[in-house]
Amino acid sequence: MATILPRTNREGQVIGYQAKVRRLGHKPVSKTFEKRRDAERWAKSIETDMDRRVFQDYSQADETTLGALLRRYREAITPKKRGAEQEAGHFQVIEDDEICLRRLSGLTPQDIASFRDRMLAADYAPATVVRRMNLIATAIGHGRREWSIHMPSNPAEAKLTARPKGADRKRERRLVPERTEIVLAFDPDQQIDIEVHVRVPSEEERLIAGLAANKHGRWLVPMAQLALETAARQGEICALTWEDIDLKKRVMTVRGLSGDGSKNGEVRRVPLSTAAIAALRSFPTFEEGTGPVVAEDQALLKVTFGRVVDRLGIKDLTFHDLRHEATSRLAKIYPNPLELMRITGHKSLATLARYYHADAEELAQRLA
Fold first, then answer.
1. Of 18-22, 94-98, 294-298, minimum mean pLDDT range
2. Which residues contact 285 (CB under 8 A, 6 or more apart)?
3. How many CB atoms are closer than 10 A to CB 115?
4. Where are the domains of the chain?
5. Is the torsion defined by CA of 110, 164, 136, 86 positive or negative?
6. Which first-to-last residue range defines the signal peptide (predicted)?
7. Got the DSSP string for 297-324?
8. Which CATH superfamily is domain 203-356 in?
């Protein structure tokens, strides 16, 4: 039987009623109401659910805020993941938002939608906002499954809260090739303007020259060249050791930052072109033949790369774009997508398609 007890203030006045339900096989549950009939109605419904074996204890969801759940997930689960540092950074931004003050039992899809709109208003990219919404959904899902935090539904799931448009738009940034421009120049002998053909260097040529002029160029130049030849990610290159390089077999083993696999969790063996081998030979650590290939901090090299690109006036180019460029180049050598996927490490054709960008001119040449 349920117990209904009046709650009184210091003056002895009844200010509410606490309903407490005890059943064999269940932890005692209680809830306070202003009116006795509401307490009785709630207690009866709980007893009925317990008898039907469908009762869910929502007390933890009543007591836990979203912020507390996210912090627990960030501290207990995130460190075990690849990309833990990046994920923890996203969580810290989320935890500064007002949504984290909401108790899980009262969290609604409308709250998640408001969080989405605040992130977009703060000029975060749609893909970043989607990532953070998905992290909220993942943390809530884990709490429901593993930590007995019962909730009727997960309000952050995509089926309940729409994601921002444009988050899945493919990035198609490739390096601009060399070209010739026609400019007018004054000929003093003929006293007329004449057309002069001027060679404009490719973005790759400008990039390599700009990196070489930097004090960290001894690392960045071979890294960029290796990325363009192998489609390896920056983190994968920085995680390489000379034990991963077999110049005789012309193979590079990519193990990723964890040593157990790259971003998708798989170790892959990548064939090395003559240019890739030349890039490897130009690393300052080549003569040592052991230990890390890149003996410099990855974060520092990433920042330096961005500063060099900005100084050169090359717009909207990241190191990861070299992977896009390399994948498109390798597709000409390996037209079989399954072979190409083994080199690039993509696990599906859909993912590979996000990185392979053949322009119309290239496709037209194949028709000739």
1. 18-22
2. 242, 291, 292, 293, 294, 295
3. 23
4. 3-55, 71-146, 203-356
5. negative
6. none
7. -HHHHHHHHHHHHHHHT-TT--TTHHHH
8. Intergrase catalytic core (1.10.443.10)
